[in-house]
């Protein structure tokens, strides 16, 4: 007899394995183009297996986008925690975000913008990132600019990067724009 906890553990392991495959697929090709049949075929599983992730295509998309941002946030925060210089943590944070988002292509970002539930996940992460920049400025001891202002500006720029406005105006892709934001914030918050 299979114990319920081993079934739950097996399902969780399968769910994580599917997410491991869905995240890079979505980053590379977006997600709105896929039907459940397409996803099952690409992952080499049945549609019913996909339901381990979530009970519908829409919820599979949401779960995958959420998990992608969760994993990225964890990776970014590990990098920040490893930086001993509190002042450098601001640029480490923004550069780490750029590196985490680098695998996500333009179709992924277009789909994030086009699909309201995914767009809301992204917007929530932008709000959290702006708050985190504010916290990092406060913790840095750099008081040249108000941390609330820096966080707010960072949030506005992050949103503009997502919308493609920065790339349209400058030609910088998302990763390069995040790096430039890191340089700008680092420079602006340095004490003289």
TrEMBL record:
Sequence ranges assigned to domain HTH tetR-type in this UniProt record: 12-72
Alphabetic keyword roster: DNA-binding, Transcription, Transcription regulation
Keyword Transcription regulation: yes
Protein name per its UniProtKB record: TetR family transcriptional regulator
Residue range(s) of DNA binding per entry: 35-54
GO molecular function list: DNA-binding transcription factor activity; transcription cis-regulatory region binding
PROSITE patterns xref list: HTH_TETR_2 (PS50977)
Annotated signal sequence range: none
Species this protein is from: Aeromicrobium erythreum
Residues spanning the membrane: none
InterPro entries with a match to the protein in the record: Homeodomain-like_sf, HTH-type_TetR-like_transc_reg, HTH_TetR
Superkingdom classification of source: Bacteria
UniProt keyword annotation of Transcription present: yes
């Amino acid at each position: 007899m299979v114990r319920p906890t081993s079934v739950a553990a097996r399902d969780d392991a399968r769910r994580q394995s599917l997410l491991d495959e869905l995240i890079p697929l979505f980053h590379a090709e977006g997600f709105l183009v896929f039907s459940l049949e397409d996803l099952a075929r690409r992952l080499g599983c049945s549609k019913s297996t996909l339901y381990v992730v979530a009970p519908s295509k829409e919820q599979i998309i949401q779960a995958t986008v959420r998990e992608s941002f969760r994993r990225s946030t964890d990776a970014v925060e590990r990098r920040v925690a490893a930086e001993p210089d509190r002042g450098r943590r601001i640029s480490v944070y923004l550069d780490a975000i750029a590196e985490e988002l680098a695998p996500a292509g333009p179709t992924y970002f277009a789909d994030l913008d086009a699909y309201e539930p995914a767009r809301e996940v992204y917007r929530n992460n932008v709000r959290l990132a702006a708050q985190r920049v504010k916290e990092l400025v406060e913790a840095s001891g750099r008081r040249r600019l108000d941390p609330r202002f820096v966080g707010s500006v960072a949030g506005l720029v992050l949103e503009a990067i997502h919308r493609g406005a920065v790339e349209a105006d400058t030609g910088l892709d998302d990763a390069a724009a995040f790096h430039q934001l890191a340089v700008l914030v680092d420079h602006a918050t340095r004490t003289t």
